[in-house]
Amino acid sequence: MKLVIITHVVHRQNKDQYFGYAPYVREMNIWLKHVDEVIVVGPFLKQEPTIIDFVYKHDKIDFRKVSNINFTSFKDSLISFFKLPVLFWQIFLAMKDADHIHLRCPGNIGLLGCFVQIFFPNKQKTAKYAGNWDPVSVQPWTYKLQKYILNNTFLTRNIKVLVYGEWENQSKNILPFFTATYSETEKEIIQKPDFNETIAFVFVGSLVVGKNPMYAIKLVQKLIANGYKATLDLYGEGIERGVLEKYIQNNQLGNHIVLQGNQNHETLKKAYQKNHFVILPSKSEGWPKALAEGMFWGCIPVASKISCIPFMLDYGNRGIMLEMDLEEDESKLSEILECEKIFFTKSKLAVEWSRNYTIDILETEIKKLLVK
User: Fold this and answer.
1) Summary count for the chain: helices (H), strands (E)
2) Alpha carbon separation from 309 to 282, 293, 335 (Å, rounded)
3) Tell me: the pLDDT tens digits for 32-55?
4) Are 360 and 25 in contact (CB under 8 A)?
5) pTM beyond cutoff 0.85
6) Nearest to residue 170, comparing CAs of 179, 160, 180?
């Protein structure tokens, strides 16, 4: 079987190997184990792979470089508009060669892929919609357009669209799905430290407004001000780093809150194991892997009520759903911090839920999708 992947993920090259954003590539490598040939259509940068990149693992990869496009400004929109015919043709030729077409959405390259796949109604297809599928959520019009095309059984045929969460009034194209990071063999008992020394929070994600790391900092700051020995480690990079550094410095939080930068898979795993809470006050998510990963290691998730997060947290039974009000959210956390029994109960429930979603189970489900 020849699998064609249409993706917006930016790739890098080292010798004859191609790299991309690690969580995405790790997942795609599961798909690649069950196909004979792979064509990857995606943007490319002439840069060395970074610490958060991972290598595709397959012997027969045909990487087809395409220009990145965006529509965030008038100038970028104009440039991108003139690139569209070439991009459309590159995607068309790749799909023409495919036995199975796999779209990665939402993204601008994925949007083009949504249009081009209409010309191949008889080809087997899957689409991974990694964003928020909630039909009533506020999203960019390009995201809504991708969702409309993928959900429409006349425009999009012979496809399974993998979405996070279960939503009403969806077409037969839509299949509730999940993702995973850890395997069955990694399941082990984790003994969380008590609260005597410190109450440890971890944030994992890009340092951008959409992920809202500032709210995480302010919430932990409020706990510190109220006498709790709380710490926060933030893993990730982004354009908000300078703003966050200045805030930490101005408020003399350097002994409690640390920006750890981008780190590899093993470092993050150890961070989850030693922390009590994983916090993500994000404005938009699909299936937030940081929460599922933290829960796997007994962290209580503290997250905003968006996308499928309420389902992941069992509406508060195995986590804390943020109201995005510092007073209310600090009060919710204080209830747990004053009673370790509640913490360990929620922690146990978080572990039990997250460990239902392992790489082994994910691979079994992916194999089903690739069967003609």
Assistant:
1) 12, 16
2) 10, 13, 21
3) 999 999 999 999 999 999 999 999
4) no
5) yes
6) 160
